[in-house]
Design a protein that fits this description.
Number of helices: 2
Radius of gyration: 28 Å
């Protein structure tokens, strides 16, 4: 190979390197501009987390038996409202269950994945239940005392993951935590309505705390 040929090969190599650097620079600049645009749109729109309300709860069973076993069955009605004008919400996963004194007392019931449009309201009425669920001795004793006094405070929880939709942009997944207090009364203090054999329905209309 002549000296001229070697020089031409070297020049071609340098040209390819410059083109590669230019391509990489353009790619990085494009992605940077796209990211900044998305962040600006996100900041301007300021998506607000959904608003949840525990509308009612129907109690089919709620019994403590020895040794410290709890059998419970509920149907709860949860409503969710999207307060955003231009942001939609994908509920990719949402599990509903009941808690008493920081102890889960029912299995998790999964709500089917759904999309919630701007200003839309979704209503779900899942059944949650637990059959002979072991509870701590302290909680079993507290439950019996609460039942004897005629009132039990439960917490209906919904845990899941959501994504935000702004135009054609869809965000990554965010954890969603919903906490709804449910005040259940028994006996002479009961504020529920009998809706069937051993089934009592309570109108609660309770605001829930929501964190994302």
């Amino acid at each position: 190979m002549t000296a001229k040929g070697s020089k031409d090969c070297g020049n071609h190599g340098k040209i390819r390197q410059r083109r590669l650097r230019a391509f990489c620079a353009c790619f990085l600049i494009f992605n940077f501009i796209l990211l900044v645009t998305i962040l600006l749109v996100w900041a301007i729109l300021q998506p607000t987390k959904p608003k949840f309300i525990l509308q009612d709860a129907t109690v089919y069973a709620f019994n403590v038996t020895n040794p410290n076993l709890l059998t419970s069955s509920f149907q709860v009605t949860l409503s969710s409202r999207n307060p955003n004008d231009k942001v939609g919400v994908y509920y990719d996963k949402l599990d509903v269950y009941a808690v008493y004194r920081n102890q889960q007392i029912t299995l998790r019931t999964q709500i089917p994945p759904t999309y919630q449009g701007h200003k839309d309201i979704n209503v779900w009425s899942p059944y949650i239940y637990g059959n002979s669920v072991p509870v701590s001795p302290n909680n079993a004793e507290s439950l019996l005392q609460d039942q004897n006094s005629g009132a039990v405070m439960l917490l209906i929880k919904a845990d899941g993951r959501v994504r935000w939709k702004v135009g054609s942009f869809i965000s990554g997944k965010y954890h969603l935590y919903v906490r709804c207090p449910a005040y259940i009364t028994f006996g002479t203090r009961s504020t529920g309505i009998e809706v069937g054999n051993n089934a009592i329905k309570y109108q609660l209309v309770q605001q829930c705390s929501v964190s994302v």
